[in-house]
Amino acid sequence: MRNPHSIAVVIGRWQLPHLAHLALIRKAFELADTVVVVIGSARRSRNPKNPFTAVERQAMLDSMLEDEQRARVRFLPVRDYYDDKRWVHAVQQGVQALAAREAAPRPDICLVGFNKNESSYYLDLFPNWRFVDSGSAMKVDGAALRDVFFSEGDFARVLAPYVHPGVIAYLQAWKALPEYRERLEEKKAVDAYRARYTGPCYLTADSVLEINGHVLLIRRGGNIGHGQWALPGGFVDPHETFYRAALRELSEETGYKPLRATMDAALQAQAVFDDPTRSPRGRLVTKAFHFRQALNRLPEVRGEDDAKEAVWWPVERLSEIEEELFEDHAVILDRFIPFMDVARTAAG
Questions:
Q1: Could you tell me the CA-to-CA distances from 76 to 37, 54, 62, 170, 341 in Å, in that order?
Q2: pLDDT digits (tens, 9 = 90+) for 283-300
Q3: How far is CA 184 from CA 46, 134, 149, 252, 285, in A?
Q4: Which of 2, 76, 106, 344 is most buried by its number of CB atoms within 10 A?
Q5: CA torsion sign, 323 to 324 to 329 to 332?
Q6: Report field, pTM of the whole predicted structure over 0.85
């Protein structure tokens, strides 16, 4: 065998692949016969921090590789779960499934990465895999590269020292799509939002209302998450508890105004979602409440306040809109109404 390992794993979000990423992947090719590139934050809705889908990121990564490398690389998209154990299980399960397909004679796996700061903590979550620290080929900030791309200037000239020509060509074609303008306008809205709301942390509340096998969703208006599906919810006012805020936002955004006693009886569970990266708008901590009712028919609802529309979406069809759910609302829904892994594949 030409390499000491059968499989080398590299993990990233690759939200605008750059030359430091390429150096990391090349190091993996030096160590293993097959390289598995894990594409994190798969099946997320688009936002300024995650503008590209997993398919688009795979295409950009592929554009940086040589033909011989393409024959040896496998891509593994993995969702965000905001649950380290569940995420590690998805990565390991996906890698093992790919290893089985390769019929690897040596089941040894190494993990290749660069331990740059606290955001690299995930590299310590795979103690059964040998870790190889690749070091840093160059200092580059992915967020800064995205800022350049989503600006009005000549991004290709500025990015050329840091980004592979194949990726730049892909970005030039992508910039001609309507999606680029939508993401640009959303980035401007998010930047304005962050300039206005400068507190270290903000509190929000959301409702997961389930009735007769359907869950109540709204379609967002405005420039942030425009057109994406979301749970009814919003900011907690200074005089409110999370629970009261959730009920108020439910009625304001959907027109559904049951008695407080009715909602108290319907409450099934509640949970806090506080991952620092859950929203590109800043540090937003939300508490979500799961209600379940059985009624003769679904109540009439309508989009109000900043919601374009409100609908009762069948629970059995939630997977169809996973990539259209705002920010981490897919994770919130899955916490109370599991649907992400119902039809699990090797891709996690």
A1: 6, 9, 13, 21, 15
A2: 999 999 999 999 999 999
A3: 12, 34, 9, 29, 25
A4: 76
A5: negative
A6: yes
DSSP code string of 113-176: E---SGGGGGGGG-TTSEEEE---SS---HHHHHHHHTSSS-HHHHHTTTS-HHHHHHHHHHHT
**Which of these, 23, 13, 12, lies nearest to 163 by C-alpha position?**
23
Of 10-19, 148-157, 234-243, 244-253, the one with minimum mean pLDDT is 148-157
Task: Say which range, 37-46, 302-311, 320-329, has the weakest mean pLDDT.
Answer: 302-311
Compute the C-alpha angle 68/69/70, nearest 5°. 95
Q: What are phi and psi of 230, to 5 degrees?
A: -150, 165
Instruction: State the Cα–Cα distance between residues 52 and 79, nearest whole angstrom.
Output: 14
Is 298 in contact with 206 (CB distance < 8 Å)?
no
Cβ of 119: how many Cβ atoms within 10 Å?
A: 10
Separation between Cα atoms, residue 91 and residue 152, nearest integer Å = 38
| 344, amino acid identity | R
> Could you give the percent of the chain with pLDDT greater than 90?
86
- CA 121/CA 328 separation, integer angstroms: 21
Residue appearing with tokens 């069809």: 317
* Tokens read off for 21: 């990423």
Cβ burial 261-270 (10 Å sphere, 16+ → b, else e): eebeebeeeb
Contact 62, 170 (CB under 8 A): no
Distance CA 109, CA 127 (A): 11
